[in-house]
Structures are given as structure tokens and as C-alpha cells.
Amino acid sequence: xxxxxxxxxxxxxxxxxxxxxxxxxxxxxxxxxxxxxxxxxxxxxxxxxxxxxxxxxxxxxxxxxxxxxxxxxxxxxxxxxxxxxxxxxxxxxxxxxxxxxxxxxxxxxxxxxxxxxxxxxxxxxxxxxxxxxxxxxxxxxxxxxxxxxxxxxxxxxxxxxxxxxxxxxxxxxxxxxxxxxxxxxxxxxxxxxxxxxxxxxxxxxxxxxxxxxxxxxxxxxxxxxxxxxxxxxxxxxxxxxxxxxxxxxxxxxxxxxxxxxxxxxxxxxxxxxxxxxxxxxxxxxxxxxxxxxxxxxxxxxxxxxxxxxxxxxxxxxxxxxxxxxxxxxxxxxxxxxxxxxxxxxxxxxxxxxxxxxxxxxxxxxxxxxxxxxxxxxxxxxxxxxxxxxxxxxxxxxxxxxxxxxxxxxxxxxxxxxxxxxxxxxxxxxxxxxxxxxxxxxxxxxxxxxxxxxxxxxxxxxxxxxxxxxxxxxxxxxxxxxxxxxxxxxxxxxxxxxxxxxxxxxxxxxxxxxxxxxxxxxxxxxxxxxxxxxx
Length: 534
What we know:
The protein is α+β, with helices and mostly antiparallel strands. The chain is 42% helix and 20% strand.
């Protein structure tokens, strides 16, 4: 009886709320039979709760209905359950509270990939490769990723004790770590490629990305930067205001950077350059690929439309829709597309999405011819709308940002894919450092440049790597290996460099085999010419 009464009260509440929402929404939007449709939904939910053969979970039913509704819209309008909201907010706010490590579970053991710069673990001297075997005196062998977060994250100021095993140290080392706010950086790497070329990689557009980028630019400026490669490859986007502010660093005067238009006029916004910056005259090349989306396309689109620099790489994702997050009463949220954004020339770069399955498959199937594309002749047979840059070059809307120079990184062989899938590079690097760490510390110390120029794997190292890889499920393929041997051992060297010099080590080594970066280094004269820079 109590259960039936509860169901009846729940149904009444849902019906009342539904009618109220319907009347309020109807006042705003009108003429869309909202009240009638909300009643229909209430009826179906009530009948299901009352008559369905098995017990049902109303929350799951409602969330499934929400997801089904959003599936009728564009691919970027999404529902975020309450349990995922904290992670989503941390990603874009740029910090969380915990001990500050990147980690992996390796052979059931919690292993430190890297202490996060500026976090408490780094301050205590916890190192890449350390194995955490106990948390608060309890064994954590076999721990899951979720349990790691539950045990190691927590409010700033609280303490946790960990027992660590470290290669070359006989006994375990116990650390008492005071949790703190941990910064999540969106500038992954900032380094000099040569005596005059700066390189900055930005992984997303979060709350503090502009501040991080300015700091990186100032640092490179002091190191002699005269020209810049800005790497936005695989950057999925983020906050529109951060994209506008970053573009403003490089675009002078009060030129338009981006504008949005929606069905409702309150969502129409125009963004103009407004802040004078010394980087407006720095020769600029931006790298993009099919993983560059949204805010990445705003920046590269503005630079291309104003002929401010060159875009190199592969055609970007093609996401020209703007979402706004609406928080719901239970802690969940819905992100709805409220407008479209346009580059300065008026390009909407959003790809068609009538077939959502094909929307993502198109990226993998996309084929492009490499070469110069300053007048964008590769798109000349396209049905996409035509626009003109400030200098009169042809560019196209409706399909992402197509580079001025198309350069593809080589596709990986099946053998290399197997190495990546089985996490072989990381696992072997860990073993290699266990065996050779002391010798490497003596030989290279903290000298990344010496490591880059001098470190090489021996023939026996290569054989050992192949044998190790096979033991981890990556069956050896001689043809694939011969084709990608240089890449394989460059990536392995980068993985070892990351253990010692974090992201700067990883990027500065990997860049040595990067075709798109190599091409960029040959094109700064053209970048100066197109931007009218001396």
C-alpha cells in the first residue's frame, strides 16, 4: 500500500510540475503544443510505472527520454548526468583537489606517470615511475581507476599517507601528502624549436587558457622567440570567450574575430579585437587537424580570414555550433545548441549532420591531397559557399577550416597500432628506466638538450623491445617494423624523456619526427609575406 501511495504521489507531482513547466515554456515559445506533449509524456511515464511487467527506475526512464529527445537535435546538444558533472566542471575550470599525480594501473599496481607541476606530490619529490602500493596503510594492489580517485582526491588541507616503491631504492618510502588545489593546464608544452622559433601546444580552451598562453609567450619571448608555431591539433575546443581572447593576442585594431547568431536575438554576439598586444606582429603559423574543433576553429578561422598567418595540417573537424549549459535541479545539466558561430568573412564552418553516424565516420574516411593550398583550389569543386579573405583569397564555409598548406602525418601500420593499443611504449619505458635510470641520471642529469642529441637505443635494446612487445600482445611484423622503425624508437625516446622532463621532454623529442612541424619551419617567409610583416 505504501509503495502504491508513493507512486501515486510521484505521478501527481510529475504531472503538476509538467503542467507548470508547460505553461511557462508555452508563454516563452508558444504555439508548439507543449502542454499537450508534456501531458502525453506524463501519461506514458505513469502507465509504465503502474503497469509494466517489472519494477522500473523512473530516473533512468526520464534520462533515457531526455537523451532520446536530444538525439533528434544536433550532435553537440547533450545531457550530462549528475555523477559526471564534477569531472566536466574540473576539466574546464582548470583545477581539482587532490595529491596531484597522473597515473596508470600497470599490472594491478598504481603507477605514477608524472607528478603534476605545482601540486603537492611534486613538492614532496614523488617521481614518475613510482609505484604506490599502500594508501592510508591499506594495500592498493588491484585498485580500480575510480577507487584511485576516491582515495587520493579530497578537500584541500586533508592528508593521505602513501607507501611507494621506487626503482633503485631497497625499502618502500612513506609520504604523508596534504591535498591541495591541483592546476590542470591547457598549455601542454612551450619550447623553442630553434634559436628563433617558439612552439606552444594548447590542448583545450578552459577558464585560464589565455592566461597560460600569455605566460608561455612571455617566457619564449625572453628566450629569443621571433616567430611562433601555435599547435591546436586535437584541441576539441571549449570556452568561446577564451578563443576570442587568444585570437585577439594576434589580430590588431578592432577587427571582427567571430560572431554568433541564433533563433533568439539575445544569443547574437559580435566579438572584436580590442587589446593591443606585442604578438600582433609576430610571424604566426597554426597547426590543425581533423581533431581541431570549435574554439580551435574560431582562432584558426580568424587568422585565415584576416591573412594574419598560415594554417598548416589537415582540415579541421567542422563544428560551428555554440552550446549553453543549463543546470538541472538534481545536479545534472543539459547543454543545448543556442546559436551558430561565423568567422570574420561570414563563414559558418559547421559540417552537415543529418546522418549522425556518418557525421563522425566522415572524419576517418576523409582523403585530402597534400600540397600548397593558398587559393584553396582543393575545394574548387565543392558545393560549399565561397568567401574571400582580406587579400581576396578564396576560402569556403560549411566544412571546417581547410589549411593553406595540406600536410598529412603518415598513417600508422597495424604493428604500431598494436604497440599503442597494448600500452607498450609506456610499459617498456618504465622497465628501461628501472634498469638504466642510474646510468642515465649520471650521463644526462637535467640536460634535455644533451638527451635529445646524444641518446640512442642500442641494437640489443631494439631486440629487447621487440621481445617485450610480443609478450604484451603486439605480435612482431617485420614489414611494418621496417617501415616505422624510426617513428617507433622516436616515440619510445619521447616516452622516456617525459619521465624526466614531463611534457616539454615529450614534445621536444616527438617534434623531431613531426612532418607538419617540419613543414611549418620552412614557411615563415610566406607567413610574413601574407601578413605584410617585415
